[in-house]
Amino acid sequence: MSKQRIEAFTDAVIAIIITIMVLELKPPHMPTFASLWAERGSIGVYIFSFFVLSVYWNNHHHLFALVHKVTGSVLWLNMVLMFFLSLFPFTSTWVIEGHINEVAPELTYGIVILLANVTWAILVRRLIKVNGDDSLIGKSLGSDYHKPLISIGVAAFAVIVGIFQPLAVFAIDGLMFLLWVIPERRAERTVWTNDKNSKPKE
Q: TM spans, by residue (predicted)?
């Protein structure tokens, strides 16, 4: 199967999710900066969610740059990942309407991130198995690639702490996503090396 359709579908879904989120933002009731400041919580949640989705999209792009073959199981795992990401407009709006510091909305937000991270880790392992240990993804994200598992642990910790301090979900998960701002260097080096070696010699 070609990977182009799965990449195009993912790009479209994430673009739609971001569009829905920004449409959920309510403009200030008054034409003043004080009224704008009063909406700082909802704006902050939107910025955080936009950042999270951007991290997922960026790393998804780098991940599939290493892939040459996909299967039905990969398509379904990617669909599950898109399902969890599609919940961001819902969870973001609930956090905003729950006055930012409530347990249920924040825990739900954190659980969505946790489940998305679990799906991501399974997707990576499945892609390695489908493409083989000697493939680009196998060589760059092989058995010593533990960042997805670390992220699952941090996201689970955020949910546990969030039971007692709801805003900690954003603080802890925010620090976790900082690990993913710069995509895996090994993946980039593998792609660059492969592109260089595949160019015809003059």
A: 6-25, 37-56, 76-95, 107-128, 148-181
